[in-house]
Amino acid sequence: MLYAGMDIHKESTHAVVKTKQGEVIKEDEIKTKEKKIKQFFEDVEEEFEVAMEATGNYEFFYETLEELANKVHLANPYKTRLIAEEKVKTDKVDANALADLLRGNLLPTSYVPCKEIRDLRKLVRRRVKLGKQRAEIKNQIKSELRRQNIDYSNKALFKDDGLQFLKNLSNPIIDSCLAIYETIDGELDNTEKELKKEGGKYDEVQLLNTIPGVGLYSGTMIFEEIADIERFPSEDKLFSYAGLVPTVHQSGEANYHGRLSKECNKYLQWILVQCVQQHIRYCPESKISSFYRKLKKKKPNNVAKTAAARKLLQAIYWMLKNDDEFRVKG
Fold first, then answer.
1. How does DSSP assign 283-296, residue by residue?
2. Rounded to 5 degrees, what are φ and ψ at 125?
3. In what order do the strands lie in the sheet with 24-31?
4. DSSP class of residue 261?
5. Could you read off the pLDDT of 143-157 as tens digits, one per residue?
């Protein structure tokens, strides 16, 4: 078995292939193009594994390498740097470090779900982005109304009557925002239809929909961000992944609990907090809601809400583990 490391950048990529003993078989600086990557590996006759760092555009290269290598490893960039930080940092050094960590079985990796889940994840995250863009346009319209001292307190601005009210103002800034709003709203509608079709295929999503406050959109997001529940050996590991546990600093006998960890899945953290608010509202008799109300008497609302989100995630963990529906009193 041979071991390859690739330091991928926008224009160029440094690639190296090594034996188990560390002998360099092949090394080159190539253009970051699918054709060039395939050409680099086409004359590697032995079976090989390859390591690359997780980047914003990793999926294209990951899927390209999947066709060539026996196994593709996605390196966790933060942990990799802790292990293999060099005083002299170049693309060549980084590629060799990845290959060396891989052949030594020391490479810290990031989880990569199957292509179906990756596609579902892209769909859900597109829905998130569109929702944020629509909210931003709404805020711009409201800001312009306030600037013009136009009272809209008794109007549902973004329903049919409210939209007609906005159009009748003949305000060029609002008209421009409305044109963008309608485009985004149409894209959102199409995305939600696709999401309903794709998310509804999974039994796990239907299972999560038995939780009051968790709908198709939120249930699909929770599912695709967790992907495979079996990769979490305990609920604490899942809590940490979702960023719902405080950081801990220990010195001697003293323990200091800080803010929530920033090294987490922000999408999962966000949707769980949104869901638990809906759950508390629509299912006040559940243990999660009771826990929230009790804690809120002693702690700030945000602290109580985060703790309740962790309780919700605990329920989700065991539901997915045991293929069991949510029980309000259970």
1. -TTSHHHHHHHHHH
2. -70, -30
3. 24-31, 12-18, 2-8, 48-53, 71-75
4. P
5. 999 999 999 988 899
Mapped onto helix, strand or coil, the DSSP state of residue 168 is: helix
In sequence order, what are the residues at sequence separation of 6 or more whose Cβ sits closer than 8 angstroms to the Cβ of residue 268?
221, 222, 225, 226, 241, 242, 243
Distance between CA 66 and CA 60 in Å, rounded? 10
d(CA 321, CA 151): 52
Q: Tokens at residue 167, please?
A: 């159009």
Instruction: For residues 107 and 110, give the distance between their C-alpha atoms in angstroms, rounded to a whole number.
Output: 10
Region of residue 244 (phi > 0: left; psi between -120 and 50: alpha; otherwise: beta):
alpha
Look at phi and psi of residue 106 and say left if phi exceeds 0, alpha if psi is from -120 to 50, else beta: alpha
pTM, rounded to two decimals? 0.84
Q: Report the length, in residues, of the chain.
A: 330
List the structure tokens of 111: 């989880």
φ and ψ at residue 228, rounded to 5 degrees:
-115, 110
Is the pLDDT assigned to residue 244 strictly greater than 50? Answer: yes
Burial of 248 (0-12, 13-18, 19+ CB in 10 A): exposed
